[in-house]
Amino acid sequence: MLCHNRMVDLSPSGVAAVALRNRRLVRAPITLYQKGFGWIFGSRMLMLEHVGRSSRQPRFVVLEVAERPAPDRLIVASGFGPSSQWYQNLAAQPHCHISTGRLRRRPAHARLLDTQESATALARYKAANPRGWRVLHDAIEKDGAQDPETIPLVEFQLA
Questions:
Q1: pTM above 0.70, yes or no
Q2: Containing domain of residue 57, as a range?
Q3: Are 154 and 118 in contact (CB under 8 A)?
Q4: For residue 63, what are the CA distances in angstroms to 8, 19, 47, 122?
Q5: pLDDT, tens only, 11-51
Q6: DSSP-derived secondary structure letter, 113
Q7: 110 closest CA partner among 68, 151, 149, 75
Q8: For residues 6 and 26, which has the higher predicted lDDT (pLDDT)?
Q9: Span of 23-27, 59-63, 125-129 with lowest mean pLDDT
Q10: Nearest residue to 139 via CA among 130, 148, 149, 131
């Protein structure tokens, strides 16, 4: 589609790629979680509260849960790779809090999965969510910040 003399990609992955880079849109769910309405997103999303590695201030991000291998373990993907601020903050300080579903501010410990563990978990996600993976893959590929096939994953162990 042509919009203001520029081609706009209206495919699901095109819209997702633009949405992922829109700070206001991406941060909108944080307010809902903070006000106690995180349950609206069910267990497919979580809000991560972590500490800034330089500022030591609380930071928040809402992420998709890629896998829940046990009731007290959740795995998420860093679609923008290891350069994501939240990913770097967890590498510096793995203690954090998770809100998901009706669970609010539960203490957790983050573990950055190694390359092989990430590849294995990503393969399970692809098999369980082929349509979602296709949209995510194409959005990440269009953004160009990360190779979709080598997305790093993080496991949260709830306390």
A1: yes
A2: 2-158
A3: no
A4: 26, 14, 6, 15
A5: 544 444 455 556 667 788 999 999 999 999 999 999 999 99
A6: -
A7: 75
A8: 26
A9: 23-27
A10: 148
Tell me the CATH number at 30: 2.30.110.10
Nearest to 112 by CA among 156, 142, 73, 61: 156
d(CA 137, CA 151) in angstroms, rounded, equals 10
* Tally of domains within the chain: 1
CB 48 within 8 A of CB 39: no
* Dihedral angle over CA of 153, 31, 41, 24, nearest 10: -70
- Spatial distance between the Cα atoms of 103 and 48, rounded to a whole number of angstroms: 12
Any residues with CB less than 8 A from the CB of 69 and at least 6 apart, and which? 75
Matching residue, tokens 């349509």: 131
| SS3 call for 9 | coil
